[in-house]
Amino acid sequence: MKPSLESDPVARTDLDFRPGTRLKRQQIWATFITLLALTAVSKESIANPKETILYRFEKNADGYFPTSLILGGNGALYGSTLGSVFGGNVHGVEGTIFVLEPPTAGHSVWDYVRLYQFTDCADGEFPYLSLVSGAIYGSTSAGGRGCRSGNSGYGTVFDLQPVTASETKWDFHHAYRFGDEAVKDGSFPIGNFVMDSSGSLYGVTSYGGDDFEGTLFRMMPPASGQGLWTEEILYNFTGADTSSNPSGLTIDSNGVIYVTTQSGNGAVYSFSPPSNRGGVWTKSLLFSYTGTTDALLPEGLTVGPNGVIFGMTFPGGDSSAFGCGTIFALTPPSSASTSWKQQVLHHFQPDTDGCNPNSNYVIGPDGSIYGTTDGDIFTKFGNGTVFKLSPPASGHTVWSMTQLHAFKGGSDGATPTNSIALDANGTIYGATFYGGTSVSNGIGSFGYGTIYKITQ
């Protein structure tokens, strides 16, 4: 059922940034995890990497419950929080944007700096960072236009521009606020943005558009470098078959955009740019999920070597459709007469390597996939894990799973957020939504989150 334009309970539920609440259906599937029949899985012996906590969040003005983390070119970590405390009041969805700067020579403590504080619904709610490229770009999945009783707004796009060359001061701008008179421009932006060579941002909204089934959009920066960005709708999703409720995208070197959708069992589509600007983008279905061994609800697309597209699914992965998720690859056709080939690289198993893979991951120089699972209370690794999936050795076909860290739920953190980064030395950076301290957070668990690194 489509959400009403007069109220948006969906935004408060499906767009909750706490890991594990990406979709109501995912919570339902998770309750059946204990019924799974385990299948054989190739798994390397557990490694012994070292986890170090760089920062522990508290319920204060710095923000709490981190939602995103990005490694900048200067070695700093940029991120967002869901909540904050300001003006003597607790704000559960008007969070912060922050930077965690690496220690100076001779020191070991990282320096936490709050860059921006969201103040109210009109300013934006549920902030999330997408990329750092000179400036910081992100979105709020609610807030902006339409804030009133019973309605939490339709979302925004924002950027922070460095004022000084040393990046010690930043200016915040609302690049765009969704929600025109009929929400034809989209509502509730979701997932990461991607940027092309011209500086335009591409993204998706999970609702809104002509049929209120979501949009694929491009945001073009102002010519002067200041002011509002211009939105162009590239495609209005219709709800036909599995073509609605987009959840994320990526882009290849030719400007082709790949999008995941969440209606039905989910699907992956490509959108090829027109030969002339302003023309019609060409949509093609690459793969439609069945909800069994190929899993369902794909997310987190990344273009790898030779045009292969990698992604995650949750739930699914076994014949009953109740599974802990998968990592998959889509290989492009070898000729015009053939189709894309989908291959499941790994089926997650609840009692051996974790459950519910997050959609953000990174591919290392050797082709290994580094990611996190946010866990499930019914499984052995209920506080989440960090993993590495290594490509097959020469002459072999099976990818190998290594669990790098299993969170205990205490001082080391719990429930990894949908963010992970890898530096040139192979050090992994991430954040957990909970944990860090033994203080009750008032919602049935402990702590307000951490930022960590794992040295392999």
Structural overview:
With 456 residues, the protein is mainly beta. It has a domain at 19-48 and 293-456: Lipocalin. The chain is 3% helix and 43% strand. It is built from 2 helices and 31 strands. Strands 2, 3, 4, 5 and 6 form a 5-stranded antiparallel β-sheet that branches. A 4-stranded antiparallel β-sheet has the order 1-31-30-29, with no helix packed on it. A hairpin with a 5-residue loop joins β29 and β30 (428-434). The longest helix has 7 residues, at 24-30. The termini are far apart.
Provide a compact summary of the structure.
The protein has 456 residues and is an all-beta fold.
Properties at a glance:
Lipocalin, four-stranded antiparallel beta sheet, 31 strands, 2 helices, 456 residues, mainly beta, single chain, five-stranded antiparallel beta sheet
What is the fold's blueprint, element by element?
Blueprint (H helix, E strand, L loop, with lengths): L8 H5 L10 H7 L19 E7 L7 E8 L5 E10 L2 E3 L4 E6 L9 E7 L7 E9 L1 E8 L4 E2 L2 E2 L3 E7 L7 E8 L9 E9 L5 E7 L7 E6 L9 E7 L9 E6 L5 E5 L5 E6 L9 E7 L9 E6 L5 E5 L12 E6 L9 E7 L14 E2 L5 E5 L11 E6 L9 E7 L7 E9 L5 E7 L15 E6 L1
Antiparallel strand pairs: 1-31, 2-3, 3-4, 3-5, 5-6, 7-8, 8-11, 9-10, 11-12, 13-14, 14-15, 15-16, 17-18, 18-19, 19-20, 21-22, 22-23, 23-24, 25-26, 26-27, 27-28, 29-30, 30-31
